[in-house]
Amino acid sequence: MPVSQDELQAMAYTDPLTGLGNRYRMRDKVRLLSAERASDPAPFTIGIANLDSFKPINDLFGSAAGDEILCQVAHRLKACIPDGAIVIRHGGDEFAFVLPLVFERAGAEKFGQMIREVLSAPYDLGDRNVRLSASFGFAIYPFAGEEFEDLLKSAETALYRSKRRGRGQITVYSKEIALEMRRATQLEQALRNAIISDAIDVHFQPIVSLSNSVAVGFEALARWSDPDLGFVSPAVFVPLAEERGFIDALSETLLRKAAEAALSWPRELFLSFNLSSVQLMDPGTTNSILAILGRVGFDPHRLELEITETAVMSSADTAHRILSDLRQAGVRISLDDFGTGQSSLGRLRDFMFDKIKIDRAFVSRINSDRASEHIVKAILAMCEGLDLEVVAEGIEDYAEAVKLRALGCGMGQGYYFGKPADAIATLRYLQEKYYDFGATDRVPA
User: Fold this and answer.
1) How far lies 408's CA from each of 364, 372, 378, 389, 441, in Å?
2) 349 near 320, Cβ under 8 Å?
3) Which residue of 130, 311, 355, 431 has the lowest C-beta tally within 10 Å?
């Protein structure tokens, strides 16, 4: 039987998997509302919902399970959208809404919260249940755009900001957010170019023995100064590299530069290097690190990798294998920012660490806050029992250094002993300080 014109029209406006409308239906609805309100442009809202972490679930359980989840999402959304509104499948794991009676930010956020709650309930896949969260971007007509394409672009900008902020976030478009996203895009492109052109530098901060203030190693720290953006803090560009998927390229560049510089140091000095949570989820990290060391000719026994509790918790099984393989190759593992994350004692039991770094939050108050002093004492006693070396971070003055040494802390790091410096300045530091153990302005032996 031939398909009628009406049936062809319906097919053109329908998502074949979920039965929801598609982007063409959304476009026509928005244009109809815009025409109805042209003389007196009363606001209305469009929104986009993106399922967080849908791709890993789809990859793990297969496309049939992924399709089933999408159909269950569609069923839930159809059941809870208000009268006069429409919900469509925007493509992939995204769904979109047109909300004629949502006029302002608070209403959009309230709707987003309701939908977020609806979508957070478990999805039944027969022999298992899975959970998902969703992120949202909303745009309000006519403030975020008067044409469909402009309004949609604004909603996508808002969604992008939500995804940057983490899972389950809700953002309503504004000019300020648009400016923020343009800056983020500019920063991302500049960082990509800087990595390609090898413009990210490495600085080194000394780690000293508190018994005599002599350097025993250096921590490598990323530094970036862009011709247009100026100095960009690593607290900004390192998370950006993680988020946008090029932390591996950045880390490989930094490790290569750091190892090449460290070849010029006395061989007894170690190089400390930070690993990100993303790298601890990648089974290829071990081979990548060891390959770089091999090409540079740097002894793995001189490398110490710093990780945080949060990084370990992101993918514990994979992280455990990576760290075990690296330790077997001679690399030492240090737990950074100890005492500020979660499950510290459990992680010490489950993972084989060589060193603990006491967070500066405790060090900075060791002479003014008895609780901080007792926490440091407890950490030192525990590490002695576990045969772990200890570094106190963020030592700013003589009194802190003296106190930590008196408590039995073996090593320290902070501006009191030296600020991060580039490779040339670090070599000069070593030439001036390394064999000069009798400096009078240091902690007395």
Assistant:
1) 17, 15, 11, 11, 20
2) no
3) 431
Percent of the chain residues past pLDDT 70, beyond the cut: 91
Structure-token pair, residue 421 = 């410096």
CATH for the stretch 5-173: 3.30.70.270
- What global pTM score does this model have? 0.70
Taking CA atoms, 48 is separated from 22, 116, 123, 390, in Å, by: 13, 12, 20, 49
Helix, strand, coil tally for the chain in percent (to 5): 50, 20, 30
Helix (H) or strand (E) holding 255: helix 247-262
CATH fold of 185-433: TIM Barrel (3.20.20)
Angle CA 90–96–81, to nearest 5: 135
What is the tens place of the pLDDT at every residue in 193-251? 999 999 999 999 999 999 999 999 999 999 999 998 899 999 889 988 887 788 999 99
CA 319 – CA 305 distance, rounded (Å) = 13
Region(s) of the chain under CATH 3.30.70.270: 5-173
- CA 257 – CA 313 distance, rounded (Å): 28
